[in-house]
Amino acid sequence: MIKVLVVEDMHVVRAGLVALLGGQFGIEVVAQGADAEAALEAVGRTVPDVALLDIDLPGMDGIELAGELGRRVPGCRTVMLTALDRPGHVGRAFDAGASGYLLKSVSPARLAAAVRAVAAGGRVVEPPELAHDTGAPTPLTSREAEVLGLAATGATAQEIAGDLFLGVGTVRNRLSSAVGKLHARGLVDAIRIARRQGWI
């Protein structure tokens, strides 16, 4: 039996996924959650074989969550199920340790097949052409992407500094560096560019 964790912040979508996967032979949904906090609480308790994650989650996004799940439960493989088909997201997901990347337009049969394939050690991208569209490599360091991602949520430099235990000057320097590297007109433009490319 393949044990699955479903993490999706939209209740109706999550309920549909749970019902769909729960009706598949050899698959059991052992936990579900709306955000990373719920997922991290559930994973230690249920030790799933596969985690099905949305990328656009409140707080920690699904790609970061994939990396954290891999560290906490190395045997748990992750599949991203998302509407985001922008360049960069596929590459970021696999860099974080994901084993699958599927768009939400995937058929129920393909979703179940992907869960089985990933549980067996495979790697799945659906539609397949996404595997060749990982986007341009990001010019941002992981720290620059981190502070830019927090700025994108509306956090101020002071709030980011507090969250990351950094000096305000360090945060401002990293934001300024990100703006420069992206050849952006300002912070808002840098966020727009990075989001469009899937770098944050």
List the keywords.
single chain, 200 residues, alpha/beta, Rossmann fold, Arc Repressor Mutant, subunit A, 2 domains, six-stranded parallel sheet, 9 helices
What does this structure look like?
This protein is an alpha/beta fold and 200 residues long. It has 2 domains: 2-132, Response regulator (Rossmann fold, 3-Layer(aba) Sandwich), CATH 3.40.50.2300; 142-197, Winged helix-like DNA-binding domain superfamily/Winged helix DNA-binding domain (Arc Repressor Mutant, subunit A), CATH 1.10.10.10. It has helices at 11-22, 36-46, 62-72, 89-95, 108-119, 142-152, 157-164, 168-181, 187-197; strands spanning 2-7, 27-33, 50-53, 77-82, 100-103, 124-126. Strands 2-1-3-4-5-6 form a 6-stranded parallel β-sheet, sandwiched between helices. The longest helix is centred in the C-terminal third of the chain and has 14 residues, at 168-181. The protein is elongated, with a radius of gyration of 17 Å.
Summarize the structure.
With 200 residues, the protein is an alpha/beta fold.
- Second rung of CATH, namely the architecture of the largest domain: 3-Layer(aba) Sandwich
Number of strands: 6
Strand content: 15-25%
Q: Let me know the CATH homologous superfamily of the largest domain.
A: Response regulator
Proportion of residues in helical segments: 40-55%
**What is the end-to-end distance?**
35 Å
Mean of all residue-level pLDDT scores? 89
Q: How many whole angstroms does the radius of gyration measure? A: 17 Å
Query: What is the H-and-E element order?
Result: EHEHEHEHEHEHHHH
| Uncertain runs | none
Q: Kindly report the spatial arrangement of strands forming the biggest sheet.
A: 2-1-3-4-5-6
Question: Remind me, CATH topology of the largest domain?
Answer: Rossmann fold
Structural class: alpha/beta
The tally of helices reads: 9
- How many separate structural domains? 2
Spatial shape: elongated
CATH class term of the largest domain: Alpha Beta
Biggest β-sheet description: 6 strands, parallel
